[in-house]
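Case 423 in the screening queue. Each case pairs one protein sequence with one candidate compound; here the compound is cytidine-5'-monophosphate. For every case the pipeline is the same: read the inputs, emit a complex structure as tokens, and attach any notable structural observations.

Predict complex for case 423.
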Amino acid sequence: MTDSRGTLAGRRIVVGVAGSIAAYKAVALVRLLGERGAVVDVAMTPSATQFVGPLTFESLTHRPVVDDVLELDADQQIAHIELAEAADAVVIAPATANLLAVLAAGLVQDAVSAVACASRAPVIVAPAMDAGMWTHPATQRNAETLRGYGYRIVEPEVGSLASGLTGVGRLAEPPTIVDAVERLFARAGDLDGVRVVVSAGGTREPIDPVRFIGNRSSGKMGVAIAEAARDRGASVTLVAGVMSVTQPRGVEVVDATTASTMREAVLRHAPGADILVMAAAVSDFAPQRASGSKIKRDGSSLAITLVPNPDIIAEVGEMPEEVRPFLIGFAAESDDLEANAAAKLRDKGLDLIVGNVVGGPFDAIGSDENKVTVFGAEGALTDWPMLPKRQVAERLWDLIADRWRAARPAEPSEGQARRSRRR
Ligand code: C5P
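Case 423 output:
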């Protein structure tokens, strides 16, 4: 039965199945996707075929399963390349620890890794494995690498595992995976053509040619925000401060490692942009004078006078309405988050501010996860748990896109546009 109104109707989805006992759940997944109107092709690793026969999937999809990288289809085309090119999404469920490593390394070892590597479509990965394998640093690093490629990971669930033990590692239930696929299509393209500027990372204010005043910002939150906007179709400029993560692909990167170069870059790119997200940790102070030569130690103490840096986002907040983008700032506070965030929102002329607590038992700086609260003029707008930064970024964009659209002057109707053209 197909639901022609659903977001999956007519979508080409490749389900990649790896060799885990959870492969049987891929059968339910394929059936659910088909029921929602998707056209499903199945690719299998050789070991997956030991758990579930290709015929099971072929009976459900009425399409041939690809389980061999050397396979040619009826038109003598390479089958996995055909699938990769036609796919609107690739969903790998279950993904084993081994397959995560293969995908992270960019290796092509079987039909599933071949489709994932060759496709430009979004990839969703649902891991399933023993708890020890999932929590192993190598697996976690591979999952993080995949997130960096823009893959969505549907986290494994806690429950009894094939080993007889209980722990985290069970494949997410098929409806949860279908949900992730639907959300992908619901959101894909919701920022098509929107011009976004994001700042990320920290700044370094020089004291002399080798020393600086800096901060611990990694750039992870800002980069996740830039990548999520890119994946939703925005054209993104990333003003990159000092970051410990690699610069993302598919966005324009402008390097700016001091507050003053960051100010120049933001003031150059912000006017005319639709949305500016200032996630960078800009130094509030800089040495009044940077020494041209390395300061020598002579036994006496050294006093450095710090002067305040210009507040970049506040300057953008004062731009005339026609060029001022929708403004989102960040507030990292060690205490009294709500009051401090509210004051910053008001004083800097922001539309939204993302508050997070720093310096406590959990420190967002440099971490892969973050717990944030978003504030608008009316107060706190969210109550989100601790989430991986990419998921924080996705939720932020859901909120920002809605608010930005609501704040925009209404688009002229067809009739209004025609009348104003005639005038
Ligand atoms: O005042 P505070 O530094 O806490 O403000 C944080 C927000 O202001 C962040 O969005 C940060 O990027 C921005 N900021 C700025 N220019 C500065 C200092 C902070 O744009 N000089």
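Case 423 observations:
- Confidence is low (pLDDT under 50) at residues 1-5, 413-423.
- The longest helix spans residues 389-407.
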